[in-house]
Each structure stands twice: as structure tokens, then as C-alpha cells.
Write a structure and sequence with these properties.
heterodimer, A: mainly beta, Immunoglobulin-like, five-stranded mixed beta sheet, four-stranded antiparallel beta sheet, 1 helix, 9 strands, about 15% helix, about 40% strand, globular, B: alpha/beta, 14-stranded mixed beta sheet, 14 helices
């Protein structure tokens, strides 16, 4: 390569470094907002360890699952601080969202109905991938809704848990 | 065999073969339309339709017709799309044959009641479950997310014009197979309570009082006028004469729902029901409503629609044909989310290759020269375009006039210098923006439901069907794809400009919306998407709504000015007022262009959140009217009282509670499209780094978790964009243009904490002295009580500027003036103005603007810039130093967020 060519290349290279260094640093890449557009329940775990089959009611757009109520006795403090034994049956919903590059992947879970559910109030929003266990104190039905927090028209998922006494 | 006989035999053989073939061939007839013969329109869940046996009348272009079965037509290539009879509601089936389609809309009733099943679960209808979750208050300490409505707990509303369909769903359990057993249309009993006020006590209604209040027919409720404006409670229970109720439902066999009855409210369950509010587009929607349209009373500004017996659409909740509700309701009340389907909208809204909506298509395609991907896709997109030639039928221009409610009707307002047709009922020109649902009287109660028009299914007829490829640009120019401007909105609220018309006041509340036009930097999104709402009315209130991804959310157009008499009726000689918009406790996110566009008008924003737009949050456009120049009688800029008033210009009122953020880097959609990106670099590099930070200890550039270098452009106060450099007319340098506009910010107590006016003391004075001198348009920064002038003084202003400075200081105290002598910022500001203007208008010649710069600012000076309540700074600029028409260039304003700067 000719010496002059090398010099030209060097000047162009250094010049571009300078230009990018001065002006390029001013440029901040703009980032598109990606919304969560799907939430799905991938598994339901219970304290009894039994498999749970998740089904879909297409007509009313909700999932449902039958779970046999198999409580265990647990000790806890009552309101007066006394140790008591109560029934507890834990159900944990494992969920996932997409797309994975969602800008805000926060998902909230709430009890829709009934007004007096057979489980304890939900203590926290759904944790990524796996929520806190839902503790049932008796057999019964509960309607849960998972909703993406990034938009008022965002992805939702409704599921009915039918916790039933095994016949 | 003789030759002759052989010939005859051959001829017979040929004919025997050929004749049937000829008979079987296409006769060459062209199908003009197809229609089902006497279709049944009401079914129950679980019914079936023998489609093959349905009769279809086929009419040809030679006016002949014949009747065939669907089976026959399918053999000849017809395709059928079946209805969904598996669930209660509205559905349809359609047949397409030789390019023509016939559709039959059906209502599907609940079906038989199951009487012997054990009920194991009852549940709210989906729409009510939506309400319960979306209206619920957040827990203590729980932060508000973008998806939350700002106001929780608003009462559920129900209309009394048609039926409220509200029945629980019920299922039994098949435990062996672990499946639900559907109980269709469960039998229920109900107890009804009412009260007059929200705080009052309910009393149960029975007997005659109950009958006068509401008609109940197993899960459908028709409220009367007696129920209007009352609060109602329903206790709905399973009818235990019909069911065995599982023990697990003990205490939960009934559900209680409370709501408010909206007088004149029409209950909406789907898009078809929502269309009933489109009273200003009856002609377009008559196709969907399958009714007849009449404009024979156009002289009285009236259009009507009338039903066709047994053919017009009648929905499940309605006693009348759908078209009979148009013009006869005050509200639409939503019960359920709606995803808008362009295939269920009037064909008049979309370009086509044949028929009425092809007029101007060739011109439209020509305007898309060089963009073959859009030329190929334009058919099926929403129609917009240049207005010229609509009456002359000039094929050289795009003709979209027949979208709305007029074929041809001319206003007799002779002094309005506007060509073209006027809407019969609105009496405004048809070149104005359009709404999918345009109304003169109907408000929207959302009940926390959503309307989505995202069209994400790219397998639909056109992947960009709900977009506009060409926008209406100007009276004389062709539309350009490079400057996308949307003119279609989901809703349009219009005050008819007809003498004696009622003053129009609208409300849109408790509703979420999502459009198809988020912030982008992708050229493919240059086609304009939807706007949320066009406000052409005396007053539109937006309360507790949550919207994202629109080209612009709200356009407020003060076109024509409103004037009303003492009775509140429209009267052109009456008391004029600005169009008013109230955005109250609402949230707007992620828009392509801006959040609101004011074409003059009076907008108030209270406790709302607007975050993320590809352009300034608010564009306040003065609409280039020069009449204000003579408001005080003065007609020339040299007069002492010339242009002293912001009256009539856009007025924006915001509060300190509202979160207003359009943090941008300049690479976002709107800035990129309008070549304003270099402006950001100039503001950041020169205004901020060379002046604000070192001189004032303040900054207009911010950082967040995504990075640094963000500028929050809250508002711009401008004439039309291409008027920024010029006077009123493109080529006439004699007219003077002076932009009006005011932004006021108040705190919780209502006290004004910021007031930025285009006719503030300095700008008014400076313009008067500077007018006629191309080099003397100083830049002005205002922040609370602090002021900063960048004085353009070429080689010494002489007495003119010295006098003006003395006058200003005598009147208003000391102004900080940047002085030329020692500070490099002087050169930076010079370069800044030049680069700002030339980057926006690259073909304009730059003037040699020169500045004076002050050496240092005192600590007190710096502290004056921003305090707890004044986080806003307004930069007043003029391109007056730029040829070719500098003397007439107006000041325009840019409202930015300003904050403290720390070097560490």
C-alpha cells in the first residue's frame, strides 16, 4: 500500500474517532416500549404434590383446574398470640410472560370472586415465575386474575381454582 | 359413404360435443350482487344452520337474476364463513361469490335452561369481573402503575334505553373427567332496590312500583324513565326450584351488583352496538346497520336512517332495530372490552379499487411514488387526502368527500373562503378530520372497559388497514407520505355550526384505549395511525381514562369559533367562546407524535399523567390568524399597542400535580420525521453545556435509568410549522404574523405558580422595536420571575436597542443580558441559533446573528432560575434573522423542564 494511502486512512480513522467521540457521545439511542402481550400458567403445584390438569373454557375465556383438597395441620399464632393448629393447603401457580424483552414485566394477581374466598388474602403481587403459595383453609372455588401492569389494555389471564373434596 | 353424408355426420358429432361444452361455459354474465333470501336472524345457543340449503339471489349486471342454493354456489367457487352459535350474543355468516359478499347478522339467545344439574359454581359475567378488578383500589403503599386507572371505585353505570344483559354464569362439576358442565342461561330470581343519592339508603321495590321501574326477564333488565338517575342494587340468586346447589356454594348462591342508571344511556356490548353513537356518519354506517339513509331534509341540516323490515340489524339487547336508536340516545354505556375490527366498519372509510371509494385512488398512488410497498397496500387503508376538486369531480385530485354524511350539499355561508362540501348536520367543511364514531350529542361511559384498535393481526386484508398513508396537507399541495399526519380518530365530538343547535357538551370517562401508533423510529411507521379523539365542541371532558399508542391522543380544534345566544343555542352573532377541553385524572402514554394538539382552544389538565411522546406533549397552534393583530385597534407592529393580547390564542392550564414528561433524545418519531433531531443536539450541547450549566447552575438535560441526554419538551406555542419563518402568506411579505398562546400552571390551592404568555412584557416590546430590523430579534428565556435575554446586536445596536433596554428596565426591573465581550457562550449561542434554524429549514439562508454575552451571573441570579414550584422554563425564539422574510417572522415558544445541575 502506498504511504499516502496509509496516511489518508489514518487521518480518516482518527478523524472519525474524534467526530464520533464529540458528536456521537451526544446521541442517546431511543428505546421502543415493548408491552407484555401474553401471560400463561405453566404449572400448578400443591402441598400434596399431586399433578394438576389445567383446562380452558373458550366460551368465557378463562382457565380452570380441579385440585383435591388435602390439608395438613399447621401451627400458627392466633390474634391473641396463642399457638393454634389450623388447616392449610397450599397451591402455587407457576406462570410466565412474553415477550421476554418486555420493558416492564410486572404482573399483578388479584382475587376477583367470591367476596369471601376459601383462601387467605393474597399477600403480594405475583413474583416472577412463581407466586407466593395460596393458602386454602377450606374447599371452595376462587377466581384469580393475572394482569400485566404496563398497560390498562394489557395482557390478562383468568383462572378458576376448584379446590374440591375428593369423593 | 358419400362425402356429403360424412360431412353431416362429422358436423353432428362436433355439435354433439361442442354444444354441451358451450352450455357449460361461463355465459359471460357479471355478478352485480348476491343476497340471502329471507334469512332467519334469531337463533339460540346450540342451534345449527344448514348452510347448504340456504337460498341466495344472484343479480347480474344485466339486471337479470336467479336463485340458487349455497351448495350450488359453492360448487362454482363460493366460500362461506359460518356464524358462531356456541355462545349468546351477536354473530354473522357470510358468503363470497365472484367477488361479491352477502352477510347475515344474527342474534343468538341463551338457549334452554337446564333444570336438573347440580350447580357447583356461579361467576360474574366477564365484563363485570373486569370492572371489579380494574376499579379496585390499590393496597396501602402500593405504587400506581401505568396500567392502573387514576381513579378507583367509580360506580358502575347502566343505560335505560335498551336492555341490560346481566346474568351470572353457572357450571356443574364432572369430577370424574375433571370438567365443567355449562349451564346455559341459568334461571335466576332477583330483588331490586333503589335510592336517589349515593349516600342514601336502599329501599326494596315490589309490586307496581317495581314494574314501573324495571322489566325483568330472566337475566335481562330494561330500566324505565322512572329509574333514570337512580342508584340501583340487584340481588341475583339462582332459582333453587330448578337447581340443586352444591354445599360448597353455601352463602354464595347469590350475587349483588350496584350501579347508577344513566338517563338516555344505550347499553353497548360490542362494536356494532357502539356504532349507534355515530349520528354524524349515518350514510357511511347505514351499510352496516342495513337500513336506508335519507338526506332529503338536508336544507334543515337533518339526515335520518330508517329500518328495512326483517332485514335491518337488531341486536340481542334491543327492542328496536339498531338504526332506530341513532339520534335518540345521550350516552353509550360499555359492558365489555371491544377490539375494533376494520372489516366491521363502513366500506366508505377505506380506499377501494372500484366504486365510490376509488375516486382519487390513482392520484393517491401517484403521491406515493417511490414507496412501492405503500402503493401496493393503499387499497384497504383509511381514506384521507387533498380536498381540492371534490365538486368538480376532477380526477386529478383525491376525492374523499363522500366519506361522511353528504353527497353534495353546500353551505350558504358565502363569506367562508373554503371550497368543498359541508357536512349536512355539522355545517363544517368536509376537509376536516374524521372520526370512526362521530357524534353531535353522545357521551361515552366506559365502566373501566377498553377499546383497542391495534390491528396486530398482519394476516388481515391489509396489515396497515387502520392507518392513513396519505394525509390531508393543505388546500393546494399534495399529501406526502414523508410528513404523516393523521386525520382519523376513534371518536369525534362536534358542535354543529347550525343556527339554533344545542350547545354541545360531551364526557368520555372511565375508559381505557389502545391505538396503533406508538413512538417509533422505523420508517415503516411513517403511515399515520389513529388519533384517540377529535374535539370540535364547546366542551369535552375526559375523565379517568387511560390511553396509549395513538398518533395524537386529543386534537382540540377551535375551527370557526363558537358563539351562543343567551339560551345556549349556537348563534353566529352571539357570544363567542373557545372550544374547551378538560383532561381530568387521566393518563396518556407512548404516542407517536404528541399527546394533544390545540388549534387554538382552551385546555385544562388536572392531576393527570402524560408520559412518552415522540414530539412535544402539547402542540399549541395559533392557526395563523392575524385578526388578533388588530384586537386593540393597532394594525402595524410599530404601534405601541400592537399585538398585546393573547386572547383567542391557545390557552393551556396545567397543575403542579400533573406529571408531564416527554423526555426525548431527538431520535423519536415526530422529531425524526420533522428533522428536529439536530435541535436537540444544539439545545444539549450549547444552550445547556455552554450556558445553562456553567452560567446558571441549571440544566434542561436529564438522565434516567436508560441513559443521559434527555430533554423534556412539554409544549410548543407556534403558528403552522411552515409559518415559523414567514408572515401570513407564503409569498407576501407584507402581512404580519404574531403568535398568541398562554400556558398557566397552578398549585393545589389554585395559585398561579407559572405563567408563560406569547405576549409577555418583553416579547411584546422587543417585537415592536425589532420589527423591520432583520438582526434584532433577541431570544428570551423566562423561568418564574427570572428572565434572560440573548440580545442580537450586530455591531452595536445604537439608540434603538439602548432605548428599548432602558424602557424595559424602567418598566420591569433589571434584565439579565448576555454580553458579547468575554464569554464563549456568546459564540455558542450564535452558532446555536444558526444551527437550530438551518437544521429545521436547511434551505434557508442563515443570517449572521450576533449576541452579547454577560461574563458571570450572581448566586442570586442562579437561584432565581427554578425553585420548588417553578420547574419550567420557556424559550421564546424568532427566526427573524433568517431570509427570505425575516421581518415578519413571529416569536414562538418552547416550554422545557429545567432542573438543578451538579457537575459531580
Amino acid at each position: 500500500m502506498k504511504k499516502s494511502t496509509v496516511i489518508v486512512l489514518l487521518v480518516v480513522f482518527l478523524g472519525s474517532v474524534l467526530v464520533v467521540g464529540i458528536f456521537g457521545m451526544q446521541a442517546v439511542p431511543w428505546q421502543e416500549i415493548v408491552y407484555v402481550d401474553k401471560i400463561e400458567i405453566t404449572n400448578i403445584l400443591t402441598s400434596s404434590g399431586k399433578d394438576v390438569d389445567i383446562k380452558y373454557n373458550e366460551k368465557h375465556n378463562y382457565y380452570y383446574a380441579f385440585i383435591y383438597y388435602e390439608p395438613v395441620k399447621v401451627t400458627q399464632l392466633d390474634e391473641e398470640g396463642n399457638t393454634v393448629e389450623v388447616d392449610a393447603f397450599e397451591v402455587t401457580l407457576v406462570w410466565d410472560y412474553s415477550p421476554k424483552n418486555a420493558t416492564n414485566n410486572k404482573v399483578k394477581v388479584s382475587i376477583v370472586e367470591p367476596a369471601s374466598p376459601p383462601c387467605d388474602p393474597l399477600t403480594d403481587n405475583a413474583k416472577l415465575g412463581r407466586g407466593d403459595p395460596i393458602v386454602f383453609r377450606r374447599a371452595g372455588n376462587v377466581h384469580l386474575r393475572y394482569a400485566a401492569a404496563d398497560s390498562a389494555t394489557g395482557a390478562t389471564l383468568d383462572i378458576w381454582l376448584y379446590v374440591v373434596v375428593q369423593p | 359413404m358419400s362425402k356429403k353424408l360424412s360431412l353431416v355426420i362429422a358436423l353432428v358429432v362436433v355439435l354433439a360435443i361442442a354444444l354441451p361444452v358451450i352450455a357449460a361455459c361461463d355465459t359471460g354474465k357479471t355478478v352485480d350482487k348476491i343476497e340471502f333470501v329471507n334469512p332467519v336472524r334469531t337463533y339460540n345457543v346450540g342451534d345449527t344452520i344448514d348452510y347448504d340449503s340456504l337460498q341466495v339471489k344472484v343479480t347480474y349486471t344485466d339486471n337479470s337474476s336467479e336463485q340458487k342454493t349455497v351448495a350450488d354456489l359453492k360448487k362454482d367457487g363460493a366460500t362461506l364463513t359460518a356464524a358462531d352459535l356456541s355462545k349468546q350474543g351477536n354473530t354473522s355468516y357470510s358468503l363470497t361469490y365472484k367477488g361479491k359478499t352477502a352477510t347475515v347478522r344474527l342474534t343468538v339467545g341463551g338457549g334452554d335452561v337446564t333444570t336438573t344439574t347440580t350447580v357447583n359454581n356461579i361467576m360474574w359475567p366477564e365484563f363485570y369481573a373486569n370492572y371489579l378488578t380494574r376499579s379496585a383500589a390499590r393496597g396501602a403503599g402500593e405504587p400506581e402503575d401505568e396500567g392502573d386507572f387514576r381513579v378507583s371505585g367509580e360506580v358502575y353505570e347502566v343505560g335505560n334505553v335498551n336492555k341490560f344483559l346481566f346474568g351470572p354464569n353457572a357450571v356443574g362439576f364432572d369430577l370424574e373427567n375433571q370438567e365443567e358442565i355449562e349451564i346455559a342461561n341459568p334461571k335466576t330470581t332477583v330483588r331490586v332496590y333503589s335510592k336517589d343519592t349515593k349516600e342514601g339508603a336502599y329501599t326494596e321495590l315490589t309490586g307496581a312500583e317495581l314494574k314501573a321501574f324495571v322489566t325483568v326477564d330472566n337475566n335481562t333488565y330494561k330500566f324505565s324513565e322512572d329509574a333514570a338517575d337512580k342508584y340501583v342494587k340487584l340481588e341475583i340468586s339462582l332459582d333453587e326450584e330448578f337447581y340443586d346447589v352444591s354445599e360448597t356454594l353455601t352463602g354464595a348462591t347469590s350475587q349483588t351488583v350496584e350501579f347508577y342508571v344513566v338517563d338516555g344511556g344505550y347499553n353497548v356490548y360490542d362494536q356494532l352496538g357502539l356504532s349507534v353513537m355515530a349520528d354524524l356518519e349515518k350514510r357511511a354506517w347505514s351499510e352496516i346497520w342495513e337500513c336506508e339513509y335519507h338526506d332529503d331534509d338536508a336544507a334543515n341540516h337533518k339526515t335520518t336512517v330508517t329500518p328495512i323490515e326483517d332485514e335491518s340489524v337488531k341486536l340481542l339487547a334491543d327492542d328496536l332495530y339498531l338504526c332506530q336508536y341513532v339520534d335518540n340516545i345521550s350516552w353509550v354505556v360499555l359492558h365489555g372490552d371491544i377490539e375494533l375490527d376494520p372489516d366491521q366498519m363502513p366500506s366508505l372509510y377505506f380506499w377501494s379499487e372500484t366504486g365510490e371509494t376509488s375516486a382519487g385512488l390513482d392520484t393517491a398512488k401517484t403521491s406515493l411514488e417511490g414507496h412501492s410497498e405503500y402503493q401496493n397496500d393503499i387499497v384497504g387503508t383509511m381514506r384521507d387526502g387533498n380536498n381540492s376538486g371534490i365538486n368538480t369531480g376532477d380526477a386529478g385530485h383525491i376525492n374523499y368527500s363522500r366519506v361522511m354524511d353528504v353527497v353534495s350539499y353546500h353551505s350558504d355561508i358565502a363569506d367562508m373562503d373554503m371550497p368543498g362540501d359541508y357536512g349536512i348536520e355539522t355545517n363544517i367543511p368536509l376537509n376536516m378530520a374524521k372520526g370512526i364514531f362521530a357524534t353531535k350529542k353522545v357521551s361515552v361511559s366506559g365502566n373501566y372497559n377498553s377499546i383497542v384498535y391495534e390491528n396486530r393481526d398482519h394476516t388481515q386484508r391489509s396489515p396497515i388497514k387502520n392507518r392513513v398513508l396519505l394525509s390531508y396537507a393543505d388546500w393546494g399541495s399534495d399529501s406526502k407520505i414523508t410528513d404523516p399526519v393523521s386525520h382519523w380518530s376513534v371518536f369525534q365530538f362536534i358542535q354543529p355550526r347550525v343556527e339554533g343547535a344545542d350547545r354541545s357538551v360531551f364526557t368520555l370517562k372511565n375508559l381505557a384505549l389502545s391505538g396503533n401508533n406508538p413512538m417509533q423510529n422505523d420508517d415503516a411507521f411513517k403511515a399515520a395511525g389513529l388519533m384517540l379523539s377529535g374535539s370540535y365542541a364547546a366542551q369535552v371532558n375526559y375523565y379517568n381514562f387511560n390511553a396509549k399508542q395513538f398518533f395524537t391522543s386529543i386534537v382540540q380544534d377551535n375551527y370557526g369559533d363558537f358563539a351562543f345566544d343567551e339560551n345556549g343555542k349556537f348563534h353566529s352573532g352571539g357570544t363567542s367562546e373557545q372550544a374547551k377541553v378538560l383532561i381530568d385524572n387521566s393518563k396518556l402514554y407512548n404516542n407517536y407524535s404528541n399527546m394533544t394538539y390545540l388549534w387554538r382552544g382552551d385546555m385544562t389538565v388536572k392531576n393527570s399523567e402524560m408520559i412518552g411522546s415522540g414530539g412535544p406533549l402539547f402542540i399549541m397552534c395559533d392557526a395563523n390568524h392575524t385578526d388578533h393583530a388588530g384586537k386593540t385597534g393597532a394594525t402595524t407592529p410599530d404601534s405601541t399597542d400592537y399585538g398585546t393580547s393573547d386572547e383567542g390564542g391557545p390557552q393551556l392550564k396545567i397543575d403542579t400535580k400533573s406529571k408531564l414528561q416527554a423526555f426525548a433524545t431527538g431520535l423519536e418519531s415526530w422529531y425524526a420525521i420533522y428533522d428536529a433531531t439536530p435541535l436537540f443536539n444544539t439545545i444539549k450541547a450549547q444552550l445547556d453545556e455552554d450556558l445553562m450549566r456553567p452560567q446558571l447552575g441549571k440544566t434542561v438535560t436529564f438522565s434516567n435509568e436508560k441513559g443521559s441526554g434527555y430533554v423534556n419538551v412539554i409544549a410548543v406555542i407556534i403558528p403552522d410549522a411552515d409559518m415559523i419563518l414567514k408572515g401570513k402568506d407564503y409569498d407576501d411579505n407584507t402581512e404580519k404574523l404574531d403568535v398568541r398562546g398562554v400556558v398557566t400552571q397552578t398549585d393545589d390551592s389554585g395559585e398561579v405558580v407559572n405563567h408563560f404568555a406569547m405576549h409577555n412584557n418583553f416579547v411584546t416590546t422587543a417585537r415592536r422595536f425589532a420589527s423591520g430590523n432583520a438582526t434584532q430579534f433577541p431570544m428570551y428565556l423566562e423561568c418564574g420571575d427570572a428572565n434572560l435575554i440573548y440580545d442580537a446586536n450586530a455591531t452595536g445596536l445604537g439608540a434603538l436597542w439602548n432605548a428599548s433596554t432602558v424602557e424595559l428596565e424602567a418598566k420591569y426591573g433589571t434584565f439579565n443580558i448576555l454580553s458579547k465581550q468575554t464569554v464563549p457562550a456568546y459564540y455558542a449561542m450564535q452558532a446555536m441559533l444558526n444551527s437550530m434554524i438551518t437544521s429545521m429549514y436547511p434551505n434557508a439562508a442563515t443570517d449572521k446573528a450576533r449576541y452579547q454575552a454577560q461574563a458571570t451571573f450572581s448566586r442570586a441570579d442562579k437561584d432565581a432560575w427554578t425553585n420548588e414550584t417553578s420547574q419550567l422554563v420557556c424559550l421564546y425564539l424568532s427566526a427573524g434573522t433568517i431570509e427570505p422574510h425575516p421581518v415578519n417572522a413571529p416569536y414562538f415558544g418552547i416550554l422545557l423542564q429545567i432542573g438543578d445541575y451538579s457537575a459531580t
